[in-house]
Design a protein that fits this description.
alpha/beta, five-stranded parallel beta sheet, five-stranded mixed beta sheet, about 30% helix, binds S-adenosyl-L-homocysteine
């Protein structure tokens, strides 16, 4: 039966991918996705048809997946991490709704970047947290800034996605400035590049010094709350247990 799987492949290594994701890929005739992600799952794809698409063509990719499913194919649309977190799941369901298409859609979750990074840092997400994308391509920077203020004021641990790209460097600086209004400069900050995949780099620093380290689009940044501390090289946010 025609169907689109929206598959979260996790950080990239097969060990961190769910069996459901592997089964979805196995059951598909055609795999659609951005080349970097396709490369990460190369061994699973075998001789299936692969449609590689450029980064900025999300809506085209969704339309193509629905076109192929309507022709009777089973299609996998692959996303890194979790497809429902800044991934392809929303776009696909929006396009399906707009087209009034009857194709079946199944979203398969994956380990998202902040979860993978947290595991490598220790246990920084043990209390309430917020994740905020610093990309202002689809969201006004004013809205993003307001959310940083609110998360800062609410003492949430904060995970920052899309923190900095070649052409977009000031947002992470502004985010830090805002958070310094609510948090001490000694607040622990974890910076993880390529979490749970080849080339992983883990840095534990402070809100004061975080900009001295490499931050790019393959990086997620986790800023502690007022109780987060560092012990034996691990970043820990206490849950509140009496020890
Ligand atoms: N759907 C993805 C997020 C896509 S947004 C997920 O659930 O993880 C892209 C951003 O995610 C990147 O700019 C980076 O901030 C973060 N990211 C994705 N994978 C990562 C990884 N393995 N290590 C560190 N950051 C990662």
């Amino acid at each position: 039966m025609s169907k689109v799987y929206v598959i979260g492949i996790g950080p990239g290594e097969e060990a961190y991918m769910t069996q459901a994701a592997k089964d979805g890929i196995e059951a598909s005739n055609i795999i659609i996705g951005y080349k970097t992600y396709i490369n990460l799952i190369e061994p699973l794809i075998k001789d299936k048809e692969v449609i590689d698409s450029g980064m900025k063509k999300e809506i085209e990719r969704c339309n193509l997946a629905i076109d192929l499913a309507e022709e009777g194919k089973v299609v996998s649309l692959v996303s890194s991490g979790d497809p429902g977190i800044y991934g392809m799941a929303g776009a696909l369901l929006e396009v399906k709704g707009q087209r009034n298409s009857q194709v079946q859609v199944e979203v398969i979750p994956g380990i998202t970047a902040v979860s993978a990074a947290a595991a490598s840092l220790g246990a920084p997400l043990m209390h309430d947290f917020a994740i905020i994308s610093l990309s202002d391509l689809l969201t006004d920077w004013e809205v993003i800034k307001k959310r940083i203020h609110m998360a800062g004021d609410g003492d949430f641990v904060i995970g920052l996605y899309n923190p900095k790209s070649k052409g977009r460097v000031t947002q992470i600086e502004e985010a830090r400035e805002i958070l310094l209004k609510y948090r001490k400069k000694e607040t622990p900050v974890g910076i993880v590049k390529n979490a749970k995949r080849e080339g992983e780099e883990v840095v534990i620093t402070t809100l004061d010094k975080m900009l001295e380290h490499n931050i790019d689009m393959l990086t997620v940044v986790i800023i502690g709350n007022s109780n987060t501390y560092i012990e034996n090289g691990k970043m820990i946010t206490p849950r509140g247990y009496k020890l």
